[in-house]
Amino acid sequence: MLITLKKESRSLEKALAGRFRKVPHGERIVYIVDGKIPEDLLAELDIESSKETSRSFKLASREYSEEATRVRVGEAEFGGPKIVICAGPCAVEGHQLLLDAARAVKDAGASVLRGGAFKPRTSPYSFQGLGEEGLRMLRGVSEEVGIPVLTEVTAPEQVSLASRYADALQIGARNMQNFELLKAVGRAGRPAVLKRGSSATIEEWLLAAEYLLLEGNWEVILCERGIRTFETATRNVLDVAGIALTKTMTHLPVIADPSHATGRRELIAAASRAAVAAGADGLLIEVHPKPEIAMSDGPQSLTIREFELLMKEVKEIARAVGRCV
Ligand code: PEP
Ligand code: MN
Predict the structure, then answer these.
(1) 132 torsion bin: left (phi>0), alpha (psi -120 to 50), beta (else)
(2) Which of 44, 182, 220, 243 gives 20 to 30 Å between its CA and that of 317?
(3) What is the average pLDDT across 102-121?
(4) Residue 269 vs residues 4, 182, 204, 242, 300: alpha-carbon distances, Å
């Protein structure tokens, strides 16, 4: 049971004898209680709302909030009528490249710049990211171009550092169940993009989101980025039906990352169109001014020109499903 009160209630807490969790939501306090609360106690409380859900992920569930949650990153608003486009290089590689990418994606209609300074790479020999220097470049370019920035954190100790430079933090697929990282991002005071683990079920993904919410961070954006199957022709398989289904299960915005889902530049526009048609609230796309020299994920990075074309196609699909870009 989920009970929302205007303020904390000592008598409720005493009666529940520790068998509850509580979390602030805006001005209110939500109590998450296992089982029922005695009627006489309920009558004493100044209850704003009381909800039941059979879901394991309680705060993230649609039963908790029928209304879609909107999450702001700079001027961009996820979960509203507008489909928010986040674009930029996989990794921050240098100031000029990032600046060129930022200007181009903004001109083409993107509202958030992406770029990793801490890169989770399969091989330890691959480029690992520029760390704090990369974060500084992100902040500089963000100010120069006037676009908010999203960057990945891979360990709890990076969270406060990254929060000083970035407008939003990404938890990558490999870290979806890094629970200490989830808790740290839950306390960071920054919106979070939570990617689905490549072998995670939707329920596990939403339970990971629940960790963020339970720490009081309600600014959570879910990102479907492809799951692992027997197929090897594409890097992953974009779970298009999963996007539509997840939106029925949660009030949180759901975006799609067609770059990591396909791993192949030539498939990204098709995957983007499908995701938007399925109800995605945004797209996260890797774009590089010179993909052939990219230090990570070059084969799935769009050129500026390809990104401009993709934006046109996505706009048409968005219009067809009653949304805009
Ligand atoms: C990324 O966004 O560059 C990334 C590493 O994504 P994922 O965690 O989805 O693999
Ligand atoms: Mn990448």
Answers:
(1) alpha
(2) 220
(3) 98
(4) 43, 31, 28, 19, 11
Provide φ and ψ at 292, rounded to 5°: -70, -20
Q: Of the residues 174, 283, 287, 295, which should be mutated to test ligand 1's pocket, given the most ligand atoms within 8 Å of the CB?
A: 174
Res 30: pLDDT:
97
CATH T-level topology, domain 71-320: TIM Barrel (3.20.20)
Alpha carbon nearest to ligand 1 atom 8, residue: 172
* Distance, CA of 126 to CA of 118 (rounded, Å): 12
Is pTM, for the whole model, over 0.90? yes
212: closest CA among 222, 202, 201?
222
pLDDT above 90 (res 244): yes
Answer yes or no: are the C-beta atoms of 83 and 282 closer than 8 Å: yes
Rounded CA separation 268/285 (Å)? 8
Sign of torsion over alpha carbons 238, 243, 244, 246: positive
Domain residue ranges in the chain: 2-51, 71-320
pLDDT in tens, 267-288: 999 999 999 999 999 999 999 9
Tens of pLDDT along 17-45? 889 999 999 999 999 998 778 888 888 88
Closest to 78 measured CA to CA, from 309, 283, 307: 283
Q: Which amino acid is at 207?
A: L
Ligand 1 site-directed mutation target among 86, 90, 128, most atoms within 8 Å of CB: 90
Average pLDDT, the chain: 97
d(CA 32, CA 3): 7
In Å, what is the CA distance from 312 to each residue of 82, 149, 168, 256, 319?
15, 23, 26, 17, 11
